[in-house]
Amino acid sequence: MNNTAASEPIENFNRHDVDPINLGFVTLISIVAAIGGLLFGYDTAVISGAIDFMQTLFHLDTFMKGWAVSSLTVGAVIGAAFAGSLSDALGRKKMLIAAGVLFSIGSLGSAFSQTIELFVFARIVGGIGIGVSSTLVPLYIAEISPARFRGRLVSLNQLAVVIGISAIYFVNRAVAGAGGTTWDITTGWRWMFGLGIVPGLLFVILLFVVPESPRWLIKQGQSNRALNVLEHINGQRQAKVEVEDISESLRTEAGSIWTVFGPGLRVALLIGVVLGVLQQVTGINAIMYYAPSIFQQTGAGTNAQLTETIIVGVVNLVFTIISLWLIDKVGRKALLLVGTAVMAISLFVVGYQFRAVHPNSGLILTFILIFVAAFAVSLGPVVWLIMAEIFPTRIRGRATAIASVALWAADYLVSQTFPILLTGAGPASTFWVFGIMSVIAFFFTMLVVPETRGSSLEEIERRWRGTSP
Ligand code: BGC
């Protein structure tokens, strides 16, 4: 039956009369790619447990301390900027491997740095790897996934980010507890960074066995190889339909990145960039990076601060899993609308509480947790997903990279200015600013963001050209 299927014209097949999808195979590939997300989470959070020891060892002033923390984000902006054109030219797989290598070099380099300058350099190298992988992992998974499961599979990346962030709290605590304070200052913090080599190398090795993205292969004129990959995932009949559909789309696409500024696609670019920025300026990383300091302002002691920070991690994890389950059922837009509305309300309540003469710390913690939960079902996974699925294949890498650069630049801005805002403007106004940004995210979604659930990447693309029903 399969041979007949391969030789029959595709129009004889009903689109819905398809072979069963090999979900196990595509899930496995997605999990390997999502290790890139684990590295992302690991690298952004590891510094929190190390920075105080490093400050003592290297005698860091406030500026150098800030630079040691934020250099990773600067590297990520650079990595995201190059990820697009290089992956459009060389392929997704090669660039993901390069990202894993850079991350591993960054981990070892940070661990062995004898000066703060060398440390910053190593963090920028690792950050370039994170910029590349954060842009390309969602994109790669989107390009291999069957439309029906794309949201869930791409969001495995976000799940891995969150697992990375949570796991590192425990790694850091275990390392810090392994020796005395003197050992922590001279050596302990080096282990925190150095252990990153384990997931880093695992990522690189496992990537060798995953296939190249079928859409990129077709773009390069390697349709037979693409057919082979798609047959493994979707079965022979559907693979043939898809290769035709992708080839047809590519025939009508222009290869120049400038097309993204033309009518139609310019809306896609606006959505990618604005959502990327909004994901950050609504304040998630103020909580992720500075949770203990925020809880300190509510009057919590050191132990309580730590416990509260761990609860934030658990809530983030649980609600990311809930989002994975919902994203292909209720769609991206519904999650974004509910999530940003709840985020806005929680942020206003937190701000209001900080304004009170006697802030209610229980209420602040509760609403910060509600905020994190709402982010985890909405802006967290959905933004990376939409950025990976709204652009046409020929320019997908480069266009997604523009949105990713905007996201990382906004992350840099928030993490740099948050401590200043907190002491300058105070916690109440700071949380209100994040709240206003969440309101903007709600209306932007309502008015501009389309629903992409269930559509193939080619169907999404046709909508921008106005040729889809
Ligand atoms: C964001 C990160 C953030 C993480 C928190 C990701 O989607 O891009 O900046 O730290 O979610 O879960």
CATH superfamily: MFS general substrate transporter like domains
Intertermini distance: 32 Å
Quickly name the level 1 CATH class.
Mainly Alpha
Helix content: over 70%
Named CATH architecture: Up-down Bundle
Ligand species: beta-D-glucopyranose
| Uncertain stretches | 1-16
Q: Count up the domains.
A: 1
What is the averaged pLDDT score? 91
Radius of gyration: 23 Å
Alpha plus pi helix count:
20
Shape: globular
Count of strand segments: 0
Order of helices and strands: HHHHHHHHHHHHHHHHHHHH
What is the CATH topology descriptor?
Growth Hormone, Chain: A
Strand content: under 5%
Structure description:
- The protein has a single domain (21-210, 253-465), classed as Growth Hormone, Chain: A.
- It contains 20 helices and no strands.
- The radius of gyration is 23 Å and the shape is globular.
- It has helices spanning 2-7, 23-58, 62-90, 92-112, 116-144, 150-177, 181-194, 197-207, 214-219, 223-234, 236-252, 265-281, 284-297, 302-326, 332-355, 361-377, 379-389, 396-424, 427-448, 457-465.
- The two termini are 32 Å apart.
- The chain is an all-alpha fold and 469 residues long.
- Helix content is 80%, strand content 0%.
- Beta-D-glucopyranose binds at residues 44, 158, 161-162, 279, 284-285, 288, 316, 380, 384, 411.
